[in-house]
């Protein structure tokens, strides 16, 4: 199955243009600043899910960072829309379980099989300790509209105790719409109807506000931005919502 790389963000050469990645240092600083929130006296594995993992290079980095910060063994899984990427990732990074699926279709129940739920059943877990989603939600939003993005966010909130997000700003949305038009003549039909939009943090406010509305609290927001001018956010489910 071929998946439109521009339309869905599953770039096969993603790490060629993001080889120098400042997110590792930003993420490690954020998690260390949580002052032990993730560190629990347990010999059990900490379960990590990275949604939109591509070839899994950064998934492996997050796994290492979590181990350094928590001192626990990390069991990691990555979900990606592209079967070619998942197959290549499995051969390159065998210590991560790579699952193929479209998060938008899974969240809206248009994809009957849920590989994430299957993974959870196989490992006997009710949820992941940490769910990450780096630079992916824009594609969910553009393809699925506001309702599709809300469904995806609700799904992520159900799946993890901690959420770590990297969000693209509104300027990137406009650039992406033009890029798809140039590359294939296609358009995102839901783009004009988006109510969640706006620069200067307005778009990010809609998204983070929805997560808080799902019973999460914002623990950390990176003051430092990546080389692509993006921040990281760390959320934790409130104790009374566990």
In short:
This protein is of the alpha/beta class and 242 residues long. The protein has helices at residues 5-8, 14-17, 23-32, 57-70, 83-92, 103-107, 115-123, 137-159, 170-184, 202-213; strands at residues 46-51, 74-80, 96-100, 128-134, 160-166, 216-221, 232-237.
Describe the protein's architecture and organization.
The chain has 242 residues and is of the alpha/beta class. It is built from ten helices and seven strands. It is globular, with a radius of gyration of 17 Å. The model has no long low-confidence stretch (mean pLDDT 90).
Blueprint of the fold:
Blueprint: H1 5-8, H2 14-17, H3 23-32, E1 46-51, H4 57-70, E2 74-80, H5 83-92, E3 96-100, H6 103-107, H7 115-123, E4 128-134, H8 137-159, E5 160-166, H9 170-184, H10 202-213, E6 216-221, E7 232-237
Parallel strand pairs: 1-2, 1-4, 2-3, 4-5
Antiparallel strand pairs: 5-7, 6-7
Helix pairs in contact: 3-4
Features:
single chain; alpha/beta; 7 strands; globular
Tell me the fraction of residues in β-strands, as a range. Answer: 15-25%
Helix content: 40-55%
Q: Helices and strands, in N-to-C order?
A: HHHEHEHEHHEHEHHEE
Individual helix count: 10
Q: Supply the helix-strand structural class.
A: alpha/beta
Question: Whole-number average pLDDT?
Answer: 90
The tally of strands reads 7
The strands making up the biggest β-sheet line up spatially as 3-2-1-4-5-7-6
Radius of gyration: 17 Å
**Distance linking N and C termini:** 38 Å
**What oligomeric state is this?**
single chain
Largest sheet: 7 strands, mixed
Instruction: Pick out the low-confidence regions.
Output: none
What general outline do the C-alpha atoms trace? globular
């Amino acid at each position: 199955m071929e998946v439109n790389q521009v339309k869905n963000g599953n770039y096969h050469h993603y790490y060629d243009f993001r080889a120098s990645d400042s997110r590792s240092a930003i993420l490690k600083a954020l998690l260390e600043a949580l002052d032990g929130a993730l560190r629990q006296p347990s010999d059990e594995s900490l379960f990590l899910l990275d949604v939109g993992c591509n070839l899994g290079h950064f998934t492996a980095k997050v796994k290492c960072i979590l181990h350094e910060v928590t001192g626990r063994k990390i069991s990691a899984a990555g979900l990606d829309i592209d079967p070619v990427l998942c197959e290549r990732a499995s051969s390159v990074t065998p210590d991560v379980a790579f699952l193929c699926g479209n998060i938008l279709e899974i969240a809206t129940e248009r994809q009957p099989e849920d590989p994430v739920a299957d993974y959870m059943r196989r490992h006997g877990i009710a949820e992941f300790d940490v769910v990450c989603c780096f630079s992916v939600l824009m594609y969910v939003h553009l393809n699925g509209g506001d309702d599709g993005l809300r469904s995806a966010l609700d799904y992520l909130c159900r799946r993890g105790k901690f959420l770590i997000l990297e969000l693209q700003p509104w300027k990137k949305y406009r650039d992406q719409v033009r890029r798809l038009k140039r590359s294939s003549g296609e358009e995102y039909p839901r783009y004009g109807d988006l109510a969640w939009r706006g620069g200067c943090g307005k778009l990010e406010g809609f998204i983070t506000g929805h997560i808080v509305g799902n019973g999460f609290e914002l623990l950390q927001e990176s003051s430092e931005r990546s080389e692509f001018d993006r921040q990281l956010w760390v959320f934790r489910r409130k104790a009374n919502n566990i």
